[in-house]
Specification:
It is a single chain. The protein is mostly helical. It has one domain (about 15-470): Growth Hormone, Chain: A (Up-down Bundle). The chain is about 70% helix and about 0% strand. The chain has helices at about 40-75, 80-105, 110-130, 140-155, 160-170, 175-200, 210-230, 250, 255-275, 275-285, 290-320, 320-335, 345-370, 380-405, 415-435, 445-455, 455-465, 470, and strands at about 15-20, 30-35, 35-40. It has a three-stranded mixed beta sheet, covered by helices on one side.
Length: about 475
Amino acid sequence: MQNPTAEPSASSTSDEVSLTGHRPSDNESAIAIGGICVDSYETRTALRYSLWDGIFSNAMLALTETFSIAGAVFLNAPAILIAMLGSFPLLLSSFGQIILPYIIHPSKGRKHYVLQGTLFQSFFLTVLAFCGWFPELIRPWSYVFIFSLYGFSGNVVSGLWIAWMGDLVPQNIRGRHFAWRNRLFSFTQLICALFAGFFLKEYSAGNATWIVFTIVFLLAGFLRLFSSGMLYRQKEPVITRCGTSLNFRMVLKNRSFVHYSLAAALMQGTVAIAGPFFNVWYIRDLKFDFFTLSIATAATILGTICALPIWGRFADTIGNRRIVQFSGFLICTVPLPCLISSLPWHIWLLNFYTGFCWSGYNLGNFNYLLLASGKTRPEINISFSVAVNGIFVFTFSMIGGYLSQHLPQLFQWKLQSLFLLSSFLRFIIFGIFFFRLKSFETEHEKSLDLFFQIPGYRGGMGVLRNAFRAFRNK
């Protein structure tokens, strides 16, 4: 299989594979979409609608990830609510995904539930746009509650969407196709974040009016509505399995997997102590305007795009466990440069470094999760890991929200003390847990191929690693 990080040429069919599993002959009529030579009109149409769904939804994500914290700061949300902004949707989604298999009806199909989730996201974003005109006493609480419902609505059905796309694209060609898709979607986010910041470059949280946030969130809601329209037109293959009962007692018998789940959740928890407050630092303390803020967001995405092929080659050489260990160490260092510099261009370079580190960790961690979860009902292990992650992230976020107001000021700003604490705790968790991870490497699977075998990994990782990358992955 060709390296999925290299975008294939749509004009060349010499090395393309069709969805039916064979190479097209000269007299076959087929069109290449993302490295796949599609000779079925129905499947080709479904993939095109899926592509447009991804473009619209990632444009929505670019807006919400860039401006969600800014909206909370504008409404004078207390620290504890800002901490909840990223962690509470994850907690709800974690338990929601555990409960979902018991309440869905296979006869209705996965599309039915996925569309419900995306339409609710569009609705909650529209309501969010008017939070600034609510009574002053309830504005910040309403903002966080509605934003949490928005995050929950999308994340809780992400597993069904992943299964839907998994049935649409055969496993043996997922790597190439979804690598191409996700590179395209990453660039979509990058461009949208920069354009939004450019058009709002005259504004910051200090001089903006709520009408600015109204436009941003209404636009995000419309983009989600458009993506729902593309989903509605998309073919859903016949369901082979939709939902399953979960028995976590099976997971607890697997000590190595429990150790891994605790290690990953504790690392995410120590990140969550400070994660939401980096954007608060940018907006409230450093007085970033929205264009400077959007560049900071875009730098993280650009770092991810540039680094993923590099990490993929390293993982193929030394294995996913070692990539988790090496990139996990780098993640421990991410907050430290913020203690000595606050210049905008330094922040942009730091965020590029953040994207570089997290792309390696997410690649290795997600591949490690897929391998460690085994082949016998792996969804049980994954659901357990999701639930543990959600609980720890929420708990640590609440601790971070409290400590952000009570830690001593060791540097120029009080939040820098929180960044130092987060880095210190990351090193402790890394030293205790990460050197004892069991090796689950397989001889015949390449890291990037495995990474992209789960379609829409960005959506899946949204649940597994906190959902809101722009202000959590620090």
